[in-house]
Amino acid sequence: MVSLAGVAAVTFLGYRAVPVNATTIGFAYLLLVLIVATVGGFVEAALASIAATFAYNFYFLPPIGRLTIADPQNWVALFSFLATALMASRLSIAARRRAADALARQRDVERLYTFSRAILLIDTSESFPKQLVRKLAEIFELDAAVLFDRRSDEFYRAGPLDFDGLDDQLRDAALAGTSFSDERQHRAITAIRLGSNPIAGLGLQGAAMPDGVLQGVGNLVAIGLERAHAQDLDSQIEAARQSEKLRTTLLDAMAHEFKTPLTSVMAATTSLLSNPDQPREQRVELMTIADESAKHLKELIDDAVEIGRLDSATIEIHAEPFDLAEVVREVVAGMQAAMDTRVIQIEARPILHTISGDRRLLKLALKQLLDNAFKYSPSNQPVTVRVFEEAAMATVAITDRGPGIAPQDRDRIFDRLYRSPSVEGRIPGSGLGLSIALSIARAHHGDLTMTSRPGETTFSLMLAAGRRRSER
């Protein structure tokens, strides 16, 4: 309709408004057909060409007002005009089609590039194949996408619509490398291959993809799945390495810690065996030393078992009310043998609310924090332990006068088995103490925080306070 209206407008202008000769109006009609061919399609251009031919004949070629031509030369001009108009329209439409194809190919390349980048940026917080198929559906604007992973024997689906009823075909694609298509429902299933071996089946529903694009998608999915598989293997290797390192570290720590009480037990028993007739007071003293050292050894064994349990399972809390300051003093008293001449300053303010927790686990956490303070604080400087309550949290703050923690180490200070390169090999340690203390604090719905500056580092173990103690 637009092309016919254009012919009518040109005819009116050339015949009524501004009368012109036949040559001029012929060029006007030709220009109109070219414009229609550029804006519209071949059908519109052909219709405009035929309408312009009849109008040109009827209004501008003699005899005027009749669809006949008196001069035979005008027949040549008329058919040349019609052929030129039609060829120009075909060329224009072909150029538009090529431009549209180029844009479509460019869009497909951009989508493939975006998909490849998305594969590289997928994180490990969720299943890799699940994220992969979701990114595929989003980037290519698919109605549905489903991936069957041969290794895991699982289906991963994405998209607003369901892709049901073709699970067997997806399995066949993953196992035998077969393909399937349903043009009526705009569905396609292709095998994902790594080399020549199929490793997965991919089903797509939505706008049809060129074969080259579908093959590119398949190659990217194969690369993504293989990358995820390699990362899983790396994680398993790292987990095994960490487990072996943990086992070795625990054994080394146990051997080191057990030597002191075991030496005391052996010294006492050796003295008793070598001189059984010594006075009763000396025998009682030796037996007391052996008994205390045996109890200390039992505590060390319990701690070692607890450390292994904390690493491998959910922490089980046996909560009971206790006095936090009293627990701190018990831990300090139990470490007297390892303290030598070290000085610990205890500052305890009244706790106005009840505190409940697993007494044994909390003592283990405090012992780890105090041991850490002893390692990094100069021997002539005191370690300060403050017990106080603030903002409904009971807190034990342990401050040492060591060199401080370097800024680059602060984000990893609570990581299991992490030790700063600046102290590793120079100061003994396993890298477990702080992570154990943090796990225990969080198991009690509390937290463990750290503040550090040159010459002072404070670790604060915070526990949630309960009800206010009754007034007496």
How do the strands and helices of this protein lay out in sequence?
Elements: H1 2-17, H2 22-39, H3 42-60, H4 72-121, H5 128-139, E1 144-149, E2 154-158, H6 167-176, E3 180-182, E4 187-194, E5 197-205, H7 211-274, H8 280-312, E6 320-321, H9 324-334, H10 336-339, E7 344-348, E8 356-357, H11 359-376, E9 383-390, E10 393-400, H12 433-443, E11 447-453, E12 456-464
Parallel strand pairs: 7-9
Antiparallel strand pairs: 1-2, 1-5, 3-4, 4-5, 6-8, 9-10, 10-12, 11-12
Helix pairs in contact: 1-2, 1-3, 2-3, 2-4, 3-4, 4-5, 4-7, 5-7, 7-8, 9-11, 11-12
Q: What does this entry look like structurally?
A:
It is a single chain. This protein is α+β, with helices and mostly antiparallel strands and 472 residues long. It folds into 4 domains: 2-100, no CATH class; 125-209, Beta-Lactamase (2-Layer Sandwich); 239-312, Signal transduction histidine kinase, dimerisation/phosphotransfer (DHp) domain (Helix Hairpins), CATH 1.10.287; 320-464, 2-Layer Sandwich (Heat Shock Protein 90). 56% of the residues lie in helices and 15% in strands. The strands form 3 sheets. Strands 2-1-5-4-3 form a 5-stranded antiparallel sheet, sandwiched between helices. Strands 7-9-10-12-11 form a 5-stranded mixed sheet. Helix 3 (42-60) packs antiparallel against helix 4 (72-121). It is elongated and about 150 Å long. The relative contact order is 0.05. The model has no long low-confidence stretch (mean pLDDT 78).
